[in-house]
Design goal:
Structural class: alpha+beta
Helix content: 10-25%
Number of domains: 2
Radius of gyration: 24 Å
Length: about 450
């Protein structure tokens, strides 16, 4: 396949400044339950691709669904690029690569029957429904997808990458006699093994127990508190509030952000280190090469409190005269690569959780996230669970915990970084491409002067 695509690219490469083809073959299964009912079962086999051409700084992107139309689609892409190109093509240099990246499989989900997958999810779904009479409904989903992406470009790169994703999602919605509704959620993901979904009864049930627990929580009193974020919420915070600001397409098009995000500028306390690391094994955002054929890297976005790197495609790196970072990613072959995160997190510090809360007279412990938004440097997040901290101890549960502030001030208001960093799976949205598999990570974080809103 690679040789065939490379032959076609070679035939047209002199007509534009840059040309690439991505072709993806995939097969997937999806099963979902809503309440006691089986909601959907889907099996899909796909072959699709995309062509990008660049001429005098003008980009075009054309998709195709079969190899018979490939050359006519390349002609379209070249014509469109020439139509819009008016300036100079600026792409950071990357050495050509030839490679085939295979998945190291445990239990291959393609060898597990559809009946077994359905029965497993049905069992977990019933577990959620049986936890408590106040569980009104459930949403349980299973998905596996195995794909091989072929990438060739006019610079001589020829890369094939296999990818497997297996995931389960488990949500419970609880309601009390007053009509108050709460939910709990749990998800599990593997890049190599169907068995990750076996024998997880306790994790599945934890979603329902969290929903029930929040029914009994009273709304937090709004005000400024010292807040401790759990590792999941700390990872989501750094991804949403700072990670997106590190994506160079956003910075390049925003003069204010160029001023705020100057490389070498102190942004946070000296103990803070933030990374985007696609080389971590087995996580949703892990990859060997991005969708432009650039090798994956571990990047320090913040090193000892100082802004040290940002995330790039080849184009943004070329325009900003910085090194490419391997962060051009696409949701699939029918989407153009754009600057995206991979596995983004905060490195662990030295404090235990007990130490972090020991001297807090009144504070809030915020756990997980159910929603939020960012607007430039401003953020607002709603935690899925909350607990008051009183006299150095975790106290009563509270609900309706929303956290808001300015990310640059918040990075300076961090008082302690935990020694317990973990990564969890997630999905990121940007530019109409959602959910792109990513992972978020971090330890517990203690932050002062956080504005907390209740109901």
């Amino acid at each position: 396949m690679q040789d065939q695509l490379q032959t076609v690219v070679n035939r047209y490469q002199d007509r534009v400044d840059y040309l690439e083809i991505r072709l993806e073959q995939s097969e997937s299964t999806a099963i979902s339950f809503r309440g006691p009912r089986l909601d959907a079962v889907d099996r899909n086999f796909g072959l699709s691709g995309g062509i990008r051409a660049c001429h005098r700084g003008g980009w075009s992107f054309v998709t195709f669904n079969g190899l018979t139309e490939l050359e006519s689609r390349i002609e379209e892409a070249i014509a469109q690029a020439k139509l819009v190109g008016k300036e100079t093509t600026q792409l950071a240099e990357v050495a050509p690569i030839q490679d085939f990246v295979r998945v190291e499989l445990g239990t291959d989900p393609r060898g597990v029957s559809l009946a077994e997958k359905r029965q497993l999810m049905e069992t977990y779904n019933q577990l959620l429904l049986d936890i408590d009479p106040r569980i009104q409904t459930s949403m349980v989903g299973y998905r596996d997808r195995f794909g091989t992406t072929y990438f060739v470009n006019s610079l001589g790169s020829c890369i094939a990458q296999e990818r497997l994703d297996v995931s389960g999602s488990f949500a419970a919605i609880a309601r009390d006699e007053t009509g108050l509704v709460r939910q709990g959620y749990e998800s599990i993901h593997s890049r190599s093994d169907f068995d990750i979904l076996r024998n997880i009864e306790e994790r599945v049930q934890s979603a329902g127990k969290r929903a029930i627990g929040q029914l009994e929580a009273k709304s937090v009193k709004g005000g400024q508190y010292t807040v401790v974020l759990d590792p999941y919420l700390a990872g989501v915070f750094i991804h949403e509030a700072f990670g997106h600001l590190s994506e160079a397409d956003f910075v390049y098009e925003n003069p204010r952000m160029q001023e705020l995000l100057t490389i070498g500028k102190p942004l946070a306390i000296p103990q803070l280190n933030v990374v985007d690391d696609a080389t971590l094994p087995g996580l949703p955002g892990s990859l060997k090469y991005d969708d432009e054929g650039v090798p994956a890297q571990r990047k320090y976005l913040i090193k000892e409190g100082v802004l040290t790197q940002r995330l790039h495609s080849r184009e943004t790196a070329g325009k900003m005269h910085e090194a490419p970072t391997g962060n051009a990613r696409a949701l699939g072959a029918t989407y153009p690569p754009i600057v995206r995160m991979t596995n983004t997190g905060i490195e662990a510090g030295e404090h235990t959780f007990a130490d972090m809360i020991s001297d807090i007279e009144e504070g809030v412990y915020a756990v997980r996230m159910i929603g939020g938004q960012t607007n430039g440097e401003m953020f607002t997040f709603a935690s899925a669970e909350g607990y008051m901290i009183r006299n150095g101890q975790i106290a009563e549960p509270v609900s309706d915990v929303t956290l808001s502030g300015n990310v640059f001030q918040t990075l300076k208001d961090i008082e302690a970084i935990g020694n317990d960093s973990i990564y969890t799976n997630g999905g990121c949205g940007k530019g109409g491409q959602s959910p792109l598999p990513v992972s978020v990570g971090g330890p517990h974080l203690r932050i002062k002067n956080v504005v907390v809103g209740g109901r």
